[in-house]
Amino acid sequence: MLVTTPNIADPDGFYAALLEAHRGLDAAGSAALNARLVLILANHIGDRAVLDEALALARGVRAEAERAPTA
Question: Whole-structure pTM over 0.85, yes or no?
Fold first, then answer.
């Protein structure tokens, strides 16, 4: 199951480190860093069902389904 509640001990510190990792990169370099980071973290997670849930959430699929009226 995908954890969607806050789960990072120092979220502001991580965000600052993420911004710092992108410092000095052009758009292509920044996109490449993001892609590598996603693949590294996906490998760490390893659970395909969790990864599929994360992909759906990132695309907004889950959020749209939650807004849909129920019968």
Answer: no
